[in-house]
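Student: Hello, beginner here. Can you help me understand the protein record under this note? Any guidance would be welcome.
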Amino acid sequence: MIKTERQEKILELIGSENISTQSELTRRLNECGYNVTQATASRDLQEMRIIKVLLPDGTYKYAPSKDSDISISDKLEKILNHCLTNVDYANNIAVLKTMSGAAQAVGYALDSFVWDEIVGTICGDDTIMIVVRNEKSAKQLCNKLSKYIQ
């Protein structure tokens, strides 16, 4: 099946179901006959600029963005430029410091970029811990992010 058909199916699934994780989306796509990996689903979500929205019950689900591709990218880069204050790493863990209260916004920006080397993020008030696959990836991630520090 071709990419456009798969991406149409993603829009259909996230429009009719409360899908909140890449693994859940991958499972549903496979159930629908699309032979995909989580990496493929991740790339599709990034390319389609799918976002997570807060539901009334406090959970999140994937949804199509109402903004254009350019404005989303610009907005996310502005968040990083204005809020990120320091980056460092130890082994396979990157630690980011932000302005007080900004870690959630920066974490959202990072999750929206869907970088393959990121396994997961944990955000506090002004600190973000990012687990990556290995030390080399942590160093590369810190190098990428350091350009946003003013």
